[in-house]
């Protein structure tokens, strides 16, 4: 029945939120994360702009998760049998939550890194460039390109096969950033060895072909090198 007053509408909205929180474990995690972020914001006495951005990021993540829960409930209402379009609807809604969460995490890092990591000589992040922006940016660009290429070639399944290897691309992007950071020869060799082990594991598990792993490693390395070359 349609609510007859704004009070009833408010009650319906509150009931919907409470139902979603009881039903969805991930939504509870998002609320706990939002609580932690607000605590850190108050603890470090962030500026008004920083506080606004943190609250906005938390609200967007919770909103995306609520919409995902609503879409799942609607799909379950329409059909309880397996249907490809029903699966796609749920997957896309979950993807919206993932994208929003990554954006919120990035924004939280940009705002809070200067307060949490003073040992790294970070400056107030909304005034100066925060520590680690280029490696994080290169890693995000690598992930985006991997997604676009996997969608283009339409081979394999998420996290299992496809062109190129996302694990190899991410591993070598991180390794390249560590090498370029001047952490020393030993640390650089250890991180490169770890990237090689990650790539080798994709071959041993027969998830990727050697060509897919090689191109993933080249992609991660090239994007990170270009990012440091043009933006450092």
Would you kindly provide a written description of the structure presented here, covering whatever features stand out?
The protein is mainly α. It is built from eight helices and no strands. It has helices spanning about 5-25, 25-45, 50-80, 85-115, 135-155, 165-180, 185-205, 210-230. Helix 3 packs antiparallel against helix 4 (about 85-115), helix 5 packs antiparallel against helix 6 (about 165-180) and helix 6 (about 165-180) packs parallel to helix 8 (about 210-230). The longest helix is centred in the middle third of the chain and has 33 residues, at about 85-115. The termini are far apart. About 25% of the residues are buried. The mean pLDDT is about 85.
Total beta strand runs: 0
Mean pLDDT: 84
Strand percentage: under 5%
> What ranges have pLDDT less than 50 throughout 5 or more consecutive residues?
none
Characterize the overall form. Answer: flat
CATH-derived topology of the largest domain: Helix Hairpins
Spatial extent as radius of gyration = 22 Å
**How would a crystallographer describe the biggest sheet?**
none
CATH architecture assignment of the largest domain: Orthogonal Bundle
Provide the structure class.
mainly alpha
CATH hierarchy, class of the largest domain = Mainly Alpha
Q: How far is the first residue's CA from the last residue's CA?
A: 59 Å
């Amino acid at each position: 029945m349609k609510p007859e007053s704004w009070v009833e509408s408010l009650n319906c909205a509150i009931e919907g939120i409470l139902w979603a929180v009881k039903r969805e474990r991930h939504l509870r995690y998002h609320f706990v994360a939002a609580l932690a972020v607000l605590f850190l914001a108050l603890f470090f006495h962030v500026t008004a702009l920083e506080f606004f951005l943190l609250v906005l990021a938390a609200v967007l993540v919770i909103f995306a998760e609520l919409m995902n829960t609503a879409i799942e409930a609607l799909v379950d209402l329409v059909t309880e049998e397996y249907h490809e379009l029903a699966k796609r609807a749920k997957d896309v809604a979950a993807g919206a939550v993932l994208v929003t969460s990554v954006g919120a995490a990035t924004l939280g890092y940009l705002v809070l890194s200067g307060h949490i990591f003073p040992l790294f000589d970070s400056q107030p992040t909304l005034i100066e460039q925060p520590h680690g922006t280029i490696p994080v940016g290169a890693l995000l660009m690598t992930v985006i390109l991997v997604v676009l290429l996997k969608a283009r070639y339409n081979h394999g399944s998420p996290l299992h096969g496809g062109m190129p290897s996302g694990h190899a691309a991410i591993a070598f992007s991180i390794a390249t950033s560590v090498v370029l950071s001047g952490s020393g020869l030993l640390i650089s060799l250890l991180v490169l060895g770890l990237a090689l082990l990650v790539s080798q594991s994709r071959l041993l598990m027969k998830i990727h072909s050697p060509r897919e792993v090689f191109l993933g490693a080249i992609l991660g390395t090239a994007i990170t090198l270009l990012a440091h070359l043009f933006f450092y």
